[in-house]
Design a protein that fits this description.
Length: about 130
């Protein structure tokens, strides 16, 4: 791509952003699509477990393996939390990856997005009666 083409594309992006100031940032739209793809067809109980694991992965002070996150997340209704955590990581391959048996994310904007409910639109469903 030439410099002129890059400048043109940048100008188009800036123009799009200025005309759509009330719409979510493009990165939020991308993250929402990734989450919907991974989680949208799940019943609340399964969604709750997967979001607990994801939040645990993003909250630990040091990066941990999927199996450790599964055990820390205290998911209900499964005896295979480690396998479930690996499934979560695999399903979110567009934003998470494993290196040296530790789960990492590609960009720091992903945890920021996840922990702002207005941006992510995903929260852990409440258990009936709680």
């Amino acid at each position: 791509m030439t410099t002129d083409e890059q400048l043109y594309m940048l100008a188009q992006l800036v123009d799009h952003m200025s005309r759509n100031a009330n719409t979510p940032p493009l990165i939020d739209t991308l993250y929402q699509q990734i989450l919907r793809s991974a989680f949208s067809k799940l019943p609340d109980a399964l969604l709750r477990n997967r979001l607990k694991i994801l939040h645990t992965l993003l909250c630990t002070e040091e990066r941990v393996s999927a199996s450790v996150a599964g055990e820390l997340a205290d998911v209900t209704g499964t005896t295979q939390a480690a396998q479930l955590a690996k499934t979560v990581v695999e399903g979110l391959y567009a934003v998470l990856y494993v290196k040296d048996d530790r789960v990492l994310w590609y960009h720091a904007s992903f945890p920021d997005f996840m922990f702002t409910q207005e941006r992510s639109k995903f929260s852990i469903p409440q258990v009936a009666g709680s």
